[in-house]
Amino acid sequence: MPAEHDALSPRQNPDVPILLCDGRGFKRLIRFGLAWLEPHQAAINALNVYPVPDGDTGTNMLLTMQSAYREIHNSPEEDVDAVAQKVAHGALMGARGNSGVILSQIWRGFARSLNGVRAFDTIQFASALREAAATAYKGVIKPVEGTILTVAREAAEAAAGAAASSEDLRYVLQQVVDEAQQSVMRTPTLLSVLAEAGVVDAGGQGLLIILEGMLRYAKGESVAVDVEMAAAVHLQAPQPTGKEGYGYDVQFIVHGEGLDVDEMRRTIAAMGDSALVVGDSRAVKVHVHVPDPGTPINYGAALGPLSRVIVENMQDQYQEFILQKAQRPSTPVEPLCGFGTVVVVPGQGLAQVFTSLGASRVVPGGQTMNPSTEELLGAIEGVPCDEVIILPNNKNIVMAAEQAKSLSQKKVAVVPTITVPQGIAALLALNYQADLETNALVMAQAAKSIETAEITTAVRSVQINGMAVREGQVIGLINGKLQTKGDSPSQVATAALEQMHAENHEIITVYYGESVTPDEARRLADEIAVCYPEQEVEVVDGGQPYYHYILSAE
Amino acid sequence: MARVRSASLPHSIRIVTDVTAHLKPELIARHRITVLPIEIRFGDERFAISLTEPQRTRQLFERMATGPIRPATATFSSTAVQEALERLSCETEDILFILSSGKLSNGIAKAQAVSRAFMGRCRIAIMDSLSTSWGLGLLVEAAAKAAEEGASLDAVVRLVRGLLPHIYVIFTVERLDYLEQGGRVGAAQALLGTMLQIRPLLLIEDGEVIPMEKVRTRTMALGKLADFVGEFASVEKVVILRSPLEDSTEEMIAELRGLLSEVLPRRQFPVIEYDPVLACQLGPQAMGVIVYEGR
Q1: In a domain, A482, yes or no
Q2: Residue B13 forms beta bridges with which residues?
Q3: Under an 8 A CB cutoff, do B217 and A338 touch?
Q4: Burial of B25 (0-12, 13-18, 19+ CB in 10 A)
Q5: Less Cβ crowding at N or C end of chain A, within 10 Å?
Q6: Quick one: A127 and A193 in the same domain?
Q7: Structure confidence by residue, pLDDT tens digits, A139-188
Q8: β-sheet bridge partners, residue A288
Q9: Is residue A409 part of a domain?
Q10: Among partner residues A358, A432, A509, which is closest to B190 by beta-carbon distance?
Q11: Range of the domain at A112
Q12: CA of B174, closest CA in chain A: separation in Å?
């Protein structure tokens, strides 16, 4: 094969420039980007300014990349445009959280630019990055600088500059990563909330890591997790509850000297199911299904450097399977009704509340409490109505909902509710006699007309909104903004009600989560009734995870 | 027995309605309107409601409010319709029935069935008011006036038909269980077992009870009633429909009046009781407004 058609390969002599990247090369770039992202997942999550337990950027971007990689995992495509298309599609469907959606837009633009290209050179690569950044900006209603958008844009600019003077992809990638690093470090200067919290932007960092992983491949470096990093990075994937727990499919190879395969097999087998441990004293391949991927990985990393680390969320795979089944029409006699509603809800009790109010489909949040575009799309298609309204009930799900809407053939409206009580208010305002547009307006208005407070425990210490929050303190978010803190959920709940001016409203509803007993909830309700004698007080068993109380005043 | 046509004015139409129509006694007398009684079947109890026994309505509401929930239906007696038609067919050639909504009671069906035997003897028109109490009364009054002025049966039917779309009825209820029991709530969304306090807004449209949006508190519900009134470009009349029961009704009326005055200042808002036919669907503790849009 002529030299210029050689795929990007790490075995190449680092002094020989890499001129082209074809489908196979791009597949490896993606795989390395994904593999490098995995051990950095928790560190990226820790950058999230809001110390709340759900919707973490690192996990969302990882799950999005995993979905992207699954599309190309077994594909034989040689042409880079075909592979890029598949990556974009996988990312699109698996996008979770706003960061995941923006990442999927990045791949979409990247793929579109490469249409008709079999293998890209530096100039085409730079164009693709530029298109990627532009598409990401276009996908956001109000682009904010100091985020992943800025990093994408500045990385693309660096690529353009480098491609103008070099035909070596390795060189261009290096410039891209260097600039991305600088860009990430500048994000606190652009976004004051980052400066106050003392962190860089999580989404930007996630993008940097992916690009870094790609560079490592180009340079022939491994994306192994070394011992120090494993120790510093607590792989803190939240435990799936018994109801959801399909766990993770974890694979890796441990390298070392004098590895004891039998001992490893015994240890790994005790961690989960379907353990497969094979190899010799120098390299051992491990494959196991576990509830917490940190457990086997930390164990392996303590024995030696790891390579080919893959973590897959089995619930995703299961849900994909269910989705395939659900998309086959179930009962042909189901009448096509007027409106269907799709609501995203954390917790069994809350799901029941929404269902009892007439919601057609409840979508659970999943491990990060952020369902993917595909999951939302499946719910839309599964509703036996031509017109569907989506209530995301979480700031981090709105974009994925919009994405699902654009993919659906049905008439869909997204009412941008950012809390569960907003979702309830919106659903109540649904008037089956009015049309979709009117309802979308009326429901959005109803959602805005109420006050919501969410009470949870801070997962890290951070400085935000002029407040110093310690990990483990109870915090209260009012209409999505962190505004109070304290020592106990009840205390913070009553403080939040004060800040919400509950006395100006008529009814206070207390949804208690799985961390609170019915007695505790009732005691809080009694206290509230005493402080607010003119208001009605209602207590509902929401059963939501992470949030002790969700309160509304309307 | 020979049938003697008693002296009657040419083209004099005789109107038949039911006891739920809100009509002044003078009007009934002057136009010699026939008012059919209704029987409300409440489980295995019977409440016969007629002009001569209005207090039975109140008894029904009290019974609904205090006792266990029962399915309730409103029925007309074929005998009463038969007797009315036999008497009227001697006095006139044109008979006009304007009755409670056929979706809420069986009056229309009964009138149609009994009238068949009288075909050929006189012209009988049967109209579904699609409405209730005050709305029904408005239609009867308009028909009676037109008939007095010499309009033909066809013309009166056309007149009444033209008024139907301008009468709007909207309600809210304190209790959801009667709605569920009634089972005739169109496009129903499950309201009971919602785990949350809910007050639905209900439109009476085309004679059916149609759920609209829902709110959480009484004040919000009354606010929605006022909002509804506010949406009309021109309003000829607004009437508040209340339950005959006391308890919190007086406060609610005062609150609703206040809200309505903000929407339509310098207006009167008369209050009348809603009828037992509607109570079969909405229960004993509902409150609503009728809006007559005018033309």
Answers
A1: yes
A2: B94
A3: no
A4: exposed
A5: N
A6: yes
A7: 888 899 999 999 999 999 999 999 999 999 999 999 999 999 999 999 99
A8: A250
A9: yes
A10: A358
A11: 3-222
A12: 15
Q: Smallest Cβ distance to B195: which of A356, A430, A506? A: A356
Which stretch of A45-54, A392-401, B138-147, B162-171 has the lowest confidence by average pLDDT? A45-54
Q: What is the pTM of this model?
A: 0.75
Contact A98, A128 (CB under 8 A): no
Q: Are residues A298 and A364 in the same domain?
A: no
Considering only CB atoms, which chain B residues are within 8 Å of A554? 216-217, 220
Q: Walk me through the domains of chain B, giving residue ranges and CATH numbers.
A: 13-164 (3.40.50.10170), 166-292 (3.30.1180.10)
CA distance B204 to chain A (A): 12
Task: Please tell me the total count of domains within chain A.
Answer: 4
User: Does A77 contact B at CB distance below 8 Å?
Assistant: no
- A521 contact residues in B (CB cutoff 8 A): none
Phi, psi of B273 (to 5 degrees): -85, 145
CB count in 10 Å sphere of residue A219: 12
Q: Are A12 and A95 in the same domain?
A: yes
Residues A173 and A250 in one domain: no
Whether residue A97 is contained in a domain is answered as: yes
User: In chain A, what residues touch B217 (CB-CB under 8 Å)?
Assistant: 506-507, 536, 554
The rounded distance, in Å, linking the Cα atoms of B57 and B15 is: 23
The ipTM, to two decimals, is 0.77
- For residue A476 the two structure tokens come to 């209260």
- Same domain (yes/no): A210, A88: yes
Listed range (A3-12, A66-75, A158-167, A325-334) with the worst mean pLDDT = A325-334
Closest CA to B157 of B112, B123, B113, B125: B125
One domain, residues A483 and A354: no
Any B CB within 8 A of A432 CB: yes
Same domain, A476 and A431: no
Q: Which of A424, A430, A536 sits opposite B213 (nearest CB)?
A: A430
